[in-house]
Specification:
Layout: H1 2-7, H2 11-21, H3 27-30, H4 43-46, H5 50-58, E1 62-64, E2 71-73, H6 77-86, H7 93-102, H8 122-138, E3 142-148, E4 152-153, E5 185-193, E6 198-204, H9 210-228, E7 234-239, H10 250-263, E8 266-271, H11 281-293, H12 302-310, E9 319-325, H13 337-341, E10 345-347, E11 355-358
Parallel strand pairs: 3-7, 6-9, 7-8
Antiparallel strand pairs: 1-2, 3-5, 4-5, 5-6, 8-11, 10-11
Helix pairs in contact: 6-7, 9-10
């Protein structure tokens, strides 16, 4: 009774302490305050899907270097915890921070985030892209992310990174990076299937043009997409705003119209806002793993590049198919106003220059 009054401990706790003091258990066992297996379960044990829920919340806002697995997010841990609370998950901001860190995210200073001018509708465009992808996948349609990987020198040239070799047996490469006149450079253009973590890469030996880009989409559809998306009548393409798939490219739109006519399919395009090309899904989900796979290896032949790309895999099950595209693509093709007027193109009310739909042209009977 005196101990109860002095300490405020319950009589049951005091009684249990008396029994433990009389026990023959070892000092280590007696030093435990909590019984083995006691305490609250970790959130991941209670909700195995918690990490997926956090990823889903921050997906439209995730940023990062495509060659680096480290990521950062614009949403604060407090906002994430609040939104999880609305979904029925009782979790603190500190726990969210710990889970993000375990999943490869990191806090970053603003100065590390700058990638050029920031458009005022940047975040709204990312939300629109995310919504369009969700809607497309919900209906069983195909949604792809496309882009050109940087051009690569073919031959015995230094390739960044290191790999294991017997001491003193590292491959010898050229001192200067002057393109080989015969082997030249290649332009890998990639298609990433957002739904199933698979991709296609055409290794082009000619110019990186809009015709090359659209023909790569055509190759992906013939080799991979058609069998998986039988019966679908709509294809969603997400792309950055520059390069061969530029939002301003007339040839890109004309070639997409030709593809829509061939496939009898509606093609919807959503471009990333200016200054955000590194946030394209294909950069994070496919290209960086290709770069990791061939790091430290001289890209000695075109076929070696194709094989290295095709042998790129990840623990998450990434699968890539690749082939050499030896066609010649002409640069500087001019598209007339009449050709543009013939397109069956409808612009979205929100930034129609970024978001538009191209439907098959109806043939006259």
């Amino acid at each position: 009774m005196l101990v109860h009054r002095a300490t405020g401990l319950s009589r049951k706790t005091i009684k249990r302490g008396q029994l433990e003091s009389q026990s023959t258990a070892s000092p280590v066992q007696l030093s435990r305050v909590r019984a083995s297996g006691g305490g609250r379960k970790q959130q991941q044990e209670k909700w195995p899907e918690l990490l997926e829920q956090i990823e889903a919340l921050i997906q439209p806002f995730t940023k990062g270097d495509p060659m680096n697995p480290l990521k950062w997010t614009a949403k604060s841990t407090y906002r994430i915890a609040a939104e999880l609370g609305e979904r029925g998950y009782q979790i603190t901001a500190n726990t969210v921070g710990r889970l993000l860190k375990q999943n490869g995210y990191s806090l970053q200073l603003n100065r590390k985030e700058k990638e050029g001018g920031q458009h005022q509708d940047r975040d709204a465009q990312f939300r629109l892209i995310n919504e369009r992808i969700i809607d497309q996948l919900a209906t069983g349609g195909a949604a792809i992310s496309v882009d050109t990987k940087k051009k690569e020198l073919v031959g015995e040239f230094k390739n960044g990174g290191r790999e294991y070799h017997p001491k003193g047996k590292a491959p010898k490469v050229n001192v200067h990076d002057f393109a080989d006149k015969e082997l030249g450079k290649v332009a890998p253009y990639g298609i990433y299937d957002i739904n199933i973590n698979q991709g296609w890469v055409s290794v082009g030996v000619s110019s990186d043009t809009a015709a090359f880009a659209v023909n790569t989409i055509r190759e992906w559809w013939d080799k991979m997409g058609r069998s998986r998306y039988q019966g679908t009548k709509r294809l969603l393409i997400t792309a950055d705003g520059g390069g061969s798939n530029s939002s301003r490219s007339r040839l890109w739109k004309v070639e997409l119209q030709n593809l829509a006519n061939e496939l009898g399919m509606v093609i919807e395009v959503c471009h990333l806002p200016p200054g955000t090309s590194k946030w394209n899904r294909i950069e994070h989900k496919m290209f960086r793993f290709i770069a990791q796979n061939w790091r430290g290896k001289p890209l000695i032949t075109q076929q070696a590049i194709v094989q290295l790309i095709a042998h790129t895999t990840t623990k998450s099950g990434l699968k890539i198919e690749s082939a050499l595209d030896e066609r010649t693509y002409e640069k500087g093709i001019k598209i007339t106003d009449a050709q543009m007027a013939s397109l069956n193109l409808i612009q979205n009310d929100f930034h129609g220059e970024w978001n538009y739909t191209i439907s098959p042209n109806i043939k006259d009977e």
